[in-house]
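batch_manifest entry 22 of 60
target: Peptidyl-tRNA hydrolase
source organism: Paeniglutamicibacter antarcticus
requested by: lab member K.T.
priority: normal
notes from requester: please return tokens only, no post-processing; we will run our own comparison against the previous entry in this batch. if the run fails, retry once and flag.
--- input ---
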Amino acid sequence: MTSETWLVAGLGNPGPGYAHNRHNIGQMVVDELAARTGGKFKTHSSRAQILEGRLGIGGPRLILAKPMSFMNLSGGPVANLAKFFGVGNEHVIAVHDEIDVPFDTVKIKFGGGEGGHNGLRDISKALGTKDYLRVRVGVGRPPGRMETADYVLKDFSKDEKKDLPFLVDTAADAVEELMKNGLEAAHRKFHLA
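--- output ---
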């Protein structure tokens, strides 16, 4: 039994027009976690939709967040929520799309570079550190000469949509594993592939 609080931020863009884009996979994962807790999101003054709950009976306190700013401005809402709920950077988990990871793969890391991801760059700036957890949900690289921005702002392909529920479920499992058993255990479980 633990009393620590975790902030899990699912990155994406607000509004129904972006809801099914590759760039919004982080919010899809947070929606899955919300479904597992049985709670509902509410608007918070930090420009985010949040859900407060627990991970299982007697599990850690959990703040699920969907910033309502655009991806490139994710830092303000995440940093404000961390401050408001007293969450240390080591208990902040950013769930995001990752083009350098193949579709249907989930990778986890703590700190390091942002790999050109503007949402992460803004979070690092707002938190004043790169030392926070990331659940990197693979969306694969753009085909041919397609611009990265165009690719991540498109919905998943018909074939990808068949496997998308499994990818979202795996990423949600990775978040839970991080909170329950820590980074090393999560690495062992999700980096074997």
